[in-house]
């Protein structure tokens, strides 16, 4: 889409953003698919996001925090 509509060749940072967004939304299989189908080799920027997502997900599970679908934040009752 970027190339056909805007004549821009997507770069590593573009793919990294997509992976980050999908991962944060819990769409880990789709994010992994994007990484595998990237036309370039993923670097630490792309793989580093996976570690951040994993850390946040584990912390949320430990604290019993649930993300409300379609919201970019989670709330808790203390």
Automatic annotation (TrEMBL):
<dbReference type="InterPro" id="IPR011990">
    <property type="entry name" value="TPR-like_helical_dom_sf"/>
</dbReference>
<dbReference type="InterPro" id="IPR002885">
    <property type="entry name" value="PPR_rpt"/>
</dbReference>
<dbReference type="GO" id="GO:0009451">
    <property type="term" value="P:RNA modification"/>
</dbReference>
<dbReference type="Pfam" id="PF01535">
    <property type="entry name" value="PPR"/>
</dbReference>
<dbReference type="InterPro" id="IPR046960">
    <property type="entry name" value="PPR_At4g14850-like_plant"/>
</dbReference>
<protein>
    <submittedName>
        <fullName>Pentatricopeptide repeat</fullName>
    </submittedName>
</protein>
<keyword id="KW-0677">Repeat</keyword>
<dbReference type="GO" id="GO:0003723">
    <property type="term" value="F:RNA binding"/>
</dbReference>
């Amino acid at each position: 889409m970027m190339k056909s509509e805007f004549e821009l060749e997507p770069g590593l940072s573009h793919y990294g953003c997509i992976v980050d967004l999908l991962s944060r939304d819990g769409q880990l299989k789709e994010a992994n698919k994007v990484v595998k189908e990237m036309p370039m080799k993923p670097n630490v920027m792309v793989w580093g996001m996976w570690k951040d997502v994993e850390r946040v997900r584990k912390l949320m599970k430990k604290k019993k925090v649930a993300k409300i679908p379609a919201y970019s934040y989670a709330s808790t009752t203390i």
